Amino acid sequence: MDLVEVHAALADPLRLAVAQYLYDTDETPGRLGERFSVPSNLLAHHLGVLAAAGVVTRRRSEHDGRRQYLQLSHFEPMVRQLVGVGIGARPQPERVLFVCTRNSARSKLASALWRRHSLLPSADAGTAPATAPHHTANAVAERLGLSLDRAMRDVERARRPGDLVVTVCDHVQETWDHDGPGLHWSVPDPVPGGAEADFVGAAETLEARISILAPQFQKESSHDQH
Description:
Largest sheet: 4 strands, parallel
Structural class: alpha/beta
Mean pLDDT: 94
Order of helices and strands: HHHHEEHEHEHHEHEH
Distance between the termini: 42 Å
Oligomer: single chain
Helix content: 40-55%
């Protein structure tokens, strides 16, 4: 990664604003255009500059292949450091709720990893919950020293006022009609492939995202607030 190229890409106010918006959530080009009131052709140019510099990457939706999500290059320390400058504290929610479709892998791992990074309460749920956590998710969690919550929850019952909802599944993001504060992380589903490496990769991606989001809450809650 070229330091000069990254600095040049972020020197433009609009490109910096887009990168900072993507600091803790993924978004489609269309929604970015609406948010920043930028015509699609001009936005495409700016996104191309950010992508060429390695500041952002594109990921095709697992639900609708015609849709793309823009993501900050979270595994690049230089990008995280430069874009994170000036990111203010977020209002603290009552709880962080991680949501995927089956509530068997990504949301479970995310909630367990969150507890490693923050005292702010977390929970997990699904739009169509399975009957138990995926066996490979359990194995990977044990290997990583995590404890998965074995309760399987339907999101409509689990969600509370004051939750910050983080969808970690493109299918949920694109089909679940929900309001209130929320973020989306387009994390590859490890279940179809089934390989342990896929689950480890999902956990690594989730931990990178959590390590960005968790410090943004100024005050942390104690465990007795569960």
